[in-house]
Design a protein that fits this description.
The complex is a heterodimer of chains A (285) and B (315).
Chain A: H1 8-35, H2 39-44, H3 57-65, H4 68-97, H5 104-113, H6 121-130, H7 137-142, H8 148-159, H9 163-171, H10 176-184, H11 189-204, H12 208-213, H13 222-240, H14 245-284
Chain B: H1 2-24, H2 26-48, E1 55-56, E2 67-68, H3 72-79, H4 81-101, H5 103-114, H6 118-129, H7 136-147, H8 153-160, H9 175-200, H10 204-212, H11 217-243, H12 249-255, H13 261-264, H14 267-277, H15 281-308
Antiparallel strand pairs in B: 1-2
Helix pairs in contact in B: 3-15, 4-9, 5-9, 6-9, 7-12, 9-11, 11-15, 14-15
The chains are: A mainly alpha (285), B mainly alpha (315).
Chain lengths: 285, 315
């Protein structure tokens, strides 16, 4: 066995990696700490490593005095219903697509081709308008309800599902739907968990569809709201050297954290699913 | 004569068999109805509305009633300076993203692969994957607060070296640099996953014999690790070139503002601005169609190249 002693090269690589880690994490940490600060403390500090008197004032202000909560609730609604519908339709369709029945190749081609065909924004807009979906929360769910990529991954997964299990259930008199819901779905949870995580993250991060297809402010997503909050103001702030800049900066910090909160909270526990999904997707896709 | 009869008979039999197969599997077809409806209504139906690029379309009049105008809007596109600018910027930014963004995860993966402390490697991986899942809006917000001249961290760092603060957000000249660097920051970790997976597949006896032959670590990376992941590199390069024009413009929507126009106006933004803010639907649709065509050329040619190189294509 090779000795486990660390050489100088190892130490250099290690130090470099620690720097990389700091660069990856510090921005989030900076914003998180800043979001708990009051104006005076923020002004005294340049590098925000720790907060002396953590307070939730910025969050309280955002939730009580602005419409942030409305946009969070909108997005939670979209994310919850969207994820449930998307996971259902993706797995349900993928199961049928995994069967070798007449015409299935053509249907599958129809699905795959959409990954390379992009009608563009305006035709999509006219289509949604024609379907009466512009300015509805439904459009934000429907637009991503079946992702061809996840459909292909799930299909490959179901193709490899042990046929004997399905066969024995059929002999016991179970119908196709029963086989799917009671045997195939529960036994594919590892893969389903992986795509669920991705689908939920995508819905939470819904930004451009809200910009494009929702004009009613009450129905926009948190990302859309944050986008206009963080971009428009900055110009004015930089140009005019606004007087209450520390206050607005910390409110921005708090709103940034709210925009990423579900992901930051869930990420440490779900990390293996995140990676698993990516790997299987790449190998099979 | 007999053969012809047999043939007809055979065809009939085959047809009956097919019918029987379809009837037997009807549940599967029923299961597929929502999926097929989705793809037809949401993914294919918009293609019909591409015709507005060749029509005088107004949102108040149905598409079918609009007047055909031929290539009027395409002529307008090429006489409009902004379209040419957006086209140029789109291609330049795509080029930068590949040249600088593509090698970064390869280098990081090679370094990660050299880490011997498994625990440390795991933690590093967890941290570098994180930004991938955070939206561009949030990242854009953080980036702005770091780059501003009023107490932004980057400008404080620049101040430590006694340099004047840099107006990153108020001048267009830094825009592409900011795009490239922030893009790498967000995606570099996630980009390592496939390379790391390929590296674990390299036979460890290769390293052992190289060590015996006196090869140092750098030589081992150069002659064992890199060749071992070449096929992944080629595949990913092709996929990324193919998807250059269809992905990643959320970043630009978040970071763009009119000050950045000369360096940062790209086709997808131009389409949005002309179509949905200025209501020039037909004009914007023509610009969008142009963008889609270039995107398709990218996909198609990268697929051809991959086939030339003996890889599995997509078509």
């Amino acid at each position: 066995m090779v000795t486990k002693k660390l050489s100088i090269a190892d130490i250099l690589i290690g130090v470099f990696m620690i720097i990389i880690c700091i660069i990856m994490v510090y921005p989030f940490w900076h914003v998180l700490m800043g979001s708990f600060m009051n104006g005076t403390e923020y002004l005294q500090k340049n590098v925000l490593l720790w907060v002396n008197n953590p307070a939730l004032d910025n969050y309280k202000y955002l939730l009580a005095e602005t419409d942030t909560l409305l946009y969070i609730l909108n997005t939670v609604f979209i994310a919850v219903f969207g994820t449930v519908l998307s996971v259902f339709f993706t797995t349900y369709s993928a199961y049928a697509l995994s069967k070798n029945i007449p015409g299935i190749k053509f249907i599958f081609l129809l699905v795959v081709a959409t990954m390379f065909i992009d009608p563009g924004l305006i035709p999509n807009y006219i289509n949604f308008k024609d379907l009466g979906l512009i300015n509805t929360r439904a459009v934000l769910i429907i637009i991503a309800v079946i992702n061809p990529f996840f459909l292909i991954i799930m299909r490959s997964n179901f193709i490899e599902f042990p046929k004997e299990l399905e066969e024995s259930a059929r002999i016991d008199g179970a119908g196709i739907n029963k086989i799917f819901f009671q045997i195939v779905f529960p036994l594919s949870t590892a893969m389903i968990a992986a795509i669920t995580v991705f689908i939920a993250v995508n819905y939470w991060n819904t930004y451009l569809p809200s910009v494009f297809f929702i004009s009613d402010p009450d129905k926009k997503t948190i990302q859309d709201y944050l986008g206009s909050l963080l971009t428009q103001e900055q110009l004015a702030v930089d140009a005019a050297q606004a007087v209450n800049q520390p206050l607005t900066t910390m409110l921005k910090f708090a709103s940034i954290i709210l925009g990423a909160l579900p992901i930051l909270v869930v990420y440490p526990f779900m990390q293996r699913y995140f990676v698993k999904g990516a790997l299987i997707g790449a190998v099979k896709g | 004569m007999k053969k012809a009869v047999d043939d007809v008979h055979y065809k009939k039999l085959k047809k009956n068999q097919l019918k029987k197969q379809i009837v037997n599997n009807r549940t599967y077809y029923l299961m597929l109805i929502p999926c097929i409806l989705f793809f037809i209504l949401i993914k294919y139906r918009p293609l019909y509305f591409l015709q507005v690029a060749f029509k005088d379309y107004r949102i108040t009049v149905p598409v079918d009633k609009a007047k055909w105008v031929g290539l009027k809007y395409f002529v307008q596109l090429f006489t409009s300076g902004d379209f040419i600018l957006a086209l140029k910027n789109t291609l330049i930014i795509a080029f930068y993203r590949i040249v600088f963004g593509f090698p970064a995860p390869i280098i990081l993966a090679l370094l990660l692969n050299e880490l011997k402390l498994i625990k440390f490697k795991k933690i590093t991986q967890t941290l570098v994957y994180l930004p991938h899942f955070i939206s561009w809006v949030v990242i854009g917000g953080i980036l702005r607060s770091f780059l501003t001249t009023q107490g932004g961290v980057i400008n404080l760092l620049i101040g430590l070296f006694n340099q004047e603060p840099v107006g990153f957000l108020t001048s267009s000249e830094y825009f592409r640099g900011i795009l490239v660097v922030s893009g790498i920051w967000k995606e570099v970790g996630w980009g390592t996953i496939l390379y790391l997976a390929a590296m674990t597949g390299i036979n460890s006896s290769l390293y052992e014999s190289a060590t015996i032959d006196g090869a140092n670590r750098f030589q081992q990376i150069l002659h064992i690790t890199l060749p071992g992941i070449t096929y992944v590199i080629v595949t990913l390069l092709i996929i990324q070139v193919g998807s250059l024009l269809t992905t990643g413009y959320e970043q630009i929507f978040v970071l763009y503002n009119p000050i950045m126009k000369s360096k940062g106006l790209i086709l997808p933004y131009y389409v949005y601005e002309q179509g949905l803010s200025k209501y020039r639907y037909s004009f914007a649709a023509a610009a969008g169609l142009f963008n889609s065509m270039i995107a398709f050329i990218f996909v198609f040619s990268s697929d051809r190249i991959s086939k030339k190189l003996g890889q599995k294509g997509i078509f």
